[in-house]
Amino acid sequence: MAPTAEKEEDREQVVxxxxxxxxxxxxxxxxxxxxxxxxxxxxxxTLSVGPQRETISGRLGGEMxxxxxCAWLEGADGLRTEVAYPNHWRLEFEPLTLLDDEGAVFAxxxxxxxxxxxxxxVGDTACRSGPLFGAxxxxxxxx
Length: 143
What we know:
The structure is a single chain. The protein is an alpha+beta fold. It has two domains: 1-49; 54-139, CATH 2.40.50. Helix content is 24%, strand content 40%. It is built from one helix and nine strands, in the order H-E-E-E-E-E-E-E-E-E. The protein has one helix at 5-39; strands at 54-65, 68-74, 80-81, 83-84, 90-92, 97-99, 105-108, 112-124, 129-139.
């Protein structure tokens, strides 16, 4: 039984719809890839991949939670950020102090500290829930 002209026309419409849908899907993928690439572009025209370097400031705060010492920088907005300080920097508790890489007191509880680095290490610990700020530079605020 030979296909009728009507069935042939229906099949052609189905093929055209599938072809159009495929083209739309391909363009959607291209648009998404372009959007992701543009989101990583910086104003100087370079492409930035990976975590963005940031600088944050806040007052050094902390407390003991059982046998675990928890410390953070608290911003002016009240947001607390746990910071992983550079190698050989350390925190001591009772009283809370931040010691530099030579063991000298850099800051005490309530002092404003500025750190630069990247966010990462998402997860929950006894001290935090959410991202950890990994500092590679620590300084006192300008001024």
